[in-house]
Structures are given as structure tokens and as C-alpha cells.
Amino acid sequence: MTKLAPSILSADFGQLAADVKEIEEGGAHLIHVDVMDGHFVPNISFGAAVMKSLNGRTRLPYDVHLMIEDPDQYLEDFVTPQTEYITVHQEACVHLHRTLQHIHAAGAKAGVSINPGTPLVMLEEVLEEADLILIMSVNPGFGGQKMIPAALRKITELKRIREERGLKYQIEIDGGVKADNIRQVKDAGADIIVAGSAVFGAEDIAGRVRELLEKVAD
Ligand code: DX5
Ligand code: ZN
Predict the structure, then answer these.
(1) Among the four given CATH numbers 3.90.230.10, 3.20.20.70, 3.90.370.10, 1.10.630.10, the one describing domain 3-215
(2) For 88-117, how does the pLDDT look when each residue is reduced to its tens digit (9 = 90+)?
(3) Predicted model pTM
(4) How far apart are CA 70 and CA 91, in angstroms?
(5) From ligand 2's centre to the CA of 18, what distance in Å?
(6) Are 183 and 216 in contact (CB under 8 A)?
(7) Is 187 a residue of the active site?
(8) Residue 15 Cα, ligand 1 centroid: separation in angstroms?
(9) How far apart are CA 105 and CA 206, in angstroms?
């Protein structure tokens, strides 16, 4: 079953808990939490305190996407009973394998992400340690951008490698997913699909979640 992880980057922060209730009502599976530090990416979003304000207000697990330098320094802040994945960027980690071990030791599943300009081969040595591979289909920093279609080839290749080597990671795509391309993304091999502006830009947020999920139903 394909999972949908709406990104709260595009939510109305003034009524975050209410927006999250809507995605829950629509049947979303995870809350994608986009953390940006203004260094690794050219934008600042929010930190762990904002994410934790949702604790107990939703039963959806957190899918934390750290677009920050030196993520090891902040990992523990994002570990809560509701945290499922913590994902770091390959480009931000000098000791990537150690950082993934650090996430496991802190009590979360470990994800690793690559930007559109980074080839898949950069993940070669951590494919066994990772629970999740997050392929960026836009250059990170902002919601509402157009998908870079070359990301789909990486997704399909990751699926092939997983089968060939009997690995276990989930494959996630993030950036520019809309109602008119979500089926293509699923068919390329994504297990978890992030959507920000497509979900929270809708008049009826719960309705849009349902619409997107219907398009990826088997
Ligand atoms: C980009 C973020 C994405 C983004 C997705 O830096 O990591 O999660 O918010 O937003 P849309 O779906 O609007 O491209
Ligand atoms: Zn993201």
C-alpha cells in the first residue's frame, strides 16, 4: 500500500493542529516535518518545538526531514513517541554511516536523502543501514516547486536494487507531487509520497488527501 505523507511546511501555522486533523481525517499515513536551517537550504522553517506541539493532538507518526547542517547535534530533539523516521541529507553528513547509527541509537528509524544533483551511487555504502531512502524531486528549500522528472529514474533504480539485494528500505519521494502526477510517482516505485502545497493549498484539505489516495490505490 502506498503511503501519503503531507508536508506541514505548506500548512497554516496559525492553525497547525486543525490542519493536521484534516489530513488525519482524509486518511494520510504520516506527517512530513520539513526542518530547514537557512544554511543547508536557503530558507528557515521551524524546529522540534513546533513539531512537538502536535504531540497528543494527532495519532499520525512523524516523518522528520532534516534539511540542516550538522544534524547529529539536533537528532535527539526530534525523537518523541510519535517519531517514526528521522531523515538526514547525505550532502550534510561527513560521517553518514555513523549518523544513521546515531538515529537508530536515539530510537527512530533512519532515513537518508539526496538532492536532485546528487547521484544514487553516493548512497551505495549505507543502503543496508537505512530504513528509508528519500529522493528529492525538487531542490530543497521551498514548497510549491515543479517536479524534476529525472527523480523517477532514481526511484525505479532503488526498487530494482532493493529486490536484487534483498534489502528492506522504504522509498520516498518529495517535491512537486500533485494530483496529475502522483500515479506516475507510485508506478515508478515510491512507497511513501510527500505532498505539501497539493494538500494544504486545497480548499478542502481532507478531500484532497482522499483524492490523492484514490489515485494511488491498487
Ligand atoms: C522541500 C521540502 C518538501 C516540500 C514539498 O524542501 O522538503 O517536503 O515542502 O512541497 P511540495 O509538495 O509543495 O513540493
Ligand atoms: Zn521534505
Answers:
(1) 3.20.20.70
(2) 999 999 999 999 999 999 999 999 999 999
(3) 0.98
(4) 10
(5) 20
(6) yes
(7) no
(8) 19
(9) 35
